[in-house]
Amino acid sequence: MIFGIWNFTTVMEKFFFTRLQYRSGDWNTDQRMPSNILNSLVEYTTIPVDTQERVVALSSDEIFDCPFCYISGHKLVEFDDKERRNFEKYVKNGGFVFADDCNHDIDGLFAKSFEQQMATIFGADALKKIPNDHELYSSFFEFEDGPPTTSYELNGWGDDLVHDYLKAIEINGRIGVLYSNKDYGCEWDYEFKNKRWLAKDNTQFAINIVVYAMTS
After folding, report:
1. E-assigned strand segments in 63-215
2. Cα separation of 27 and 11, whole Å?
3. How far apart are CA 47 and CA 58, in angstroms?
4. Which residues are CB-neighbours of 27 under 8 A, at least 6 positions away?
5. How distant is the alpha carbon of residue 23 from its chain centre?
6. Residues 166, 156: contact at Cβ < 8 Å?
7. Interatomic CA distance for residues 161 and 25, integer angstroms
């Protein structure tokens, strides 16, 4: 990676969650989600964690100091030249971006425009479905059936489909961009103290994503 592959047994720096701010669209979604994920990392792992979310402009070179980035929205994604160059450099040099479609709609504006940006940057065939036995699904917790379903996929808004796969862009055999139409951001957008009311903590898959990103 640009910043070296993280190894939590030797690296003392704290993991921090970075939200990417981009010029177009609505990037500031699911505002309680990052603190919920960071709390889960504290609860389930020994990963040292900075519990404060960071917001970094995609056009800023600060992105190259970030071990993990999140990008989301409902509206148009249209990177400017600097954003496009930074996204490409970051991913090709070992960075990890988790992209989540808040519309949970493969025909929605976010999905179509984000996928077009990925095609422009990495090529028309770069974004592909990953198999449901991919190591992502066993990097910490076991998800034998692939990506867990969210409660938002059949709520009458979006395409009303359960997406039984995730897509990714792989660089040198490693996921550089993980892409979801399942709206995990909304699924995890609640005060972390409320997890005690859930039969099963639905943020567990977020732990897999972070651990995969930091160790693969």
Report:
1. 69-73, 97-101, 128-129, 167-171, 174-180
2. 30
3. 26
4. 19, 20, 21, 71, 72, 73
5. 19
6. no
7. 24
Nearest to 101 by CA among 58, 72, 70, 76: 72
* Alpha carbon distance 162, 105 (integer Å): 10
DSSP line for 147-176: SPP-TTTTSSSS--------EEEEETTEEE
Please state whether 30 falls in left (phi above 0), alpha (psi between -120 and 50) or beta.
left
- Give the DSSP letter of residue 104: -
Check: pTM over 0.90? Answer yes or no: yes
Residue type present at position 17: F
Inter-CA distances, 146 with 34, 48, 133, 137, Å = 22, 27, 6, 6
State how far the alpha carbon of 84 is from the alpha carbons of 89, 91, 198, 216, in Å: 9, 11, 39, 24
37-86 pLDDT tens trace: 999 999 999 999 999 999 999 999 999 999 999 999 999 999 999 999 99
